[in-house]
Amino acid sequence: xxxxxxxxxxxxxxxxxxxxxxxxxxxxxxxxxxxxxxxxxxxxxxxxxxxxxxxxxxxxxxxxxxxxxxxxxxxxxxxxxxxxxxxxxxxxxxxxxxxxxxxxxxxxxxxxxxxxxxxxxxxxxxxxxxxxxxxxxxxxxxxxxxxxxxxxxxxxxxxxxxxxxxxxxxxxxxxxxxxxxxxxxxxxxxxxxxxxxxxxxxxxxxxxxxxxxxxxxxxxxxxxxxxxxxxxxxxxxxxxxxxxxxxxxxxxxxxxxxxxxxxxxxxxxx
Length: 270
Fold this sequence. Notes:
The longest helix is centred in the middle third of the chain and has 22 residues, at 112-133. The chain has helices at 10-13, 19-33, 36-41, 44-60, 64-76, 92-106, 112-133, 148-159, 173-189, 192-197, 205-219, 225-235, 247-263. The model has no long low-confidence stretch (mean pLDDT 86). By secondary structure, the protein is mainly alpha-helical. The chain is 63% helix and 0% strand. Helix 7 (112-133) crosses helix 9 and helix 9 (173-189) runs parallel beside helix 12.
């Protein structure tokens, strides 16, 4: 059963034209979501209502610094959502699913003057999602990229921003392109690439990145040419481990180039 809207009166206040009211409503929402018993009772429809309010909270927010702060605060909601031991994804995944559904629904209606702050919001939430998979820990020793969180997140990404059926009515071209633009940046920020390259990589790091590679690879077969091109470009990014040339290979290549140079034409004899 959906939560009674009388128990969530802050939703309409999230879209208030008064900044103080919006800030107060966001603080109330943050407290509301920290309760495991409350959050687990929310339905998909409830989360959609929450994100509709949050969407318009961003819409009403003016000036760059407040916009940046708000986007960071919304992304940080992931850090306070309950992760029940019997199902770590029970709250976070429905919350994020509602986020992607809301952004997908509203994306084409966002005017050019407001688009930049929504691009930032997507970047912040995507980055926070990756951090959540790695247990949100700042210590590499405690990070792991396997288990229920990793599986749940990969499934969600495949369902929404990297939707695999190519349904452009579900996820618009613009939103797909933006996520394809940022995914490697955000993977790098959570040091997932560093962990794979290092001698002591975190548990499941290579498997999780391989999952992202597979999901993005599906976009390279999209019916939409811009999506295909952007996906292919991202997969050839030199920061990705499968695109990095081994140092021994570079030395061998340099040696061959030097040998060819010696065999080449040396100019006219005096």
